[in-house]
Specification:
The protein is α/β, with parallel strands linked by helices. It has 7 helices and 11 strands. The chain folds into 2 domains: 73 residues, 2-Layer Sandwich (Nucleotidyltransferase, domain 5); 150 residues, ATPase, nucleotide binding domain (Nucleotidyltransferase, domain 5, 2-Layer Sandwich). Pathway: Cofactor biosynthesis; coenzyme A biosynthesis; CoA from (R)-pantothenate: step 1/5.
Length: 242
């Protein structure tokens, strides 16, 4: 069994894999990490390997705590990948994007794949039909767009995500909702069209915290997968056992 740990700025996702199947999955606050690690290993005593993907939110002590229970691989730019990495600055490539590219490589082998991760930021990552990672783009996510309008103006309120009935807003709040939701949907549809014009038979996969909300509002046909990053991390762990 493998333990997969994806640590963000405030939340940690932990999943236990048996071969390629998730048998346990939990999302916890960062502050509860230590207690939950002990709980996972108490429940699943056959875990032998773990991979940790962190943006720097986990302390060295917390990482070492996991290594008490099993072998640990800390994902970084020196981690071996199954695809050819043509990114110009691999040392600056986010570990989450490495995991998503890996998931795309195994999910859709020998085909052009665009992965869109709609979280704090929206990231676009493309793997071509030669198994080569080319890069992509990064733009602000939904919550970041709302927060930027509030924090960088004097009077605009801080709003929560909300569906819009019409792209023409009839109040300041509705105009803000239209700008964020209509704007990000048109951005994603536009980016997909750009990639489709260059890559034949392109498969598009949408993942991340806002994936379900956005998938219902996009014009393009996409495959929404909530655990795509965790699958990629498990593939990376297996690949680096060799």
């Amino acid at each position: 069994m493998n333990l997969i740990i994806d640590a963000g700025n405030t939340l940690v996702k932990m999943a236990v894999f048996k071969d390629c199947d998730i048998v346990s999955h939990r999302k916890i606050p960062l502050k509860d990490f230590a207690n939950n690690v002990k709980s996972v290993f108490s429940e699943f005593r056959n875990i032998q390997n773990a991979i940790i993907s962190t943006v720097g939110s986990l302390s060295q002590e917390e990482i070492e705590m996991v290594s008490v229970f099993c072998r640990v691989h800390l994902l970084s730019h020196v981690t071996k990948t199954p695809f050819k990495n043509s990114y110009a600055t691999p040392q600056t490539l986010g570990v989450d994007r490495v995991a998503l590219a890996t998931a795309a490589f195994y999910h859709n082998p020998n085909n052009n794949t665009l992965v869109i991760d709609a979280g704090t930021c929206v990231t676009y990552d493309v793997i071509n039909d030669y198994g080569e990672y080319l890069g992509g783009a990064i733009s602000p996510g939904i919550s970041m767009r709302y927060r930027a309008m509030h924090e960088q103006t004097a009077k605009l309120p801080l709003l929560e995500i909300k569906s819009i009935l019409d792209f023409i807003g009839n109040s300041t709040e509705n105009c803000m909702h239209s700008g964020v939701i209509n704007g990000i949907c048109n951005e994603i549809d536009g980016v997909i069209s750009q990639y489709q014009s260059r890559f034949a038979d392109l498969t598009v996969i949408l993942t991340g915290g806002d994936a379900q909300f956005l998938s219902e509002r996009l014009k393009n046909t996409i495959f929404a997968h909530s655990n795509f990053l965790l699958l990629g991390l498990n593939h990376l762990l297996e690949y680096n056992k060799r």
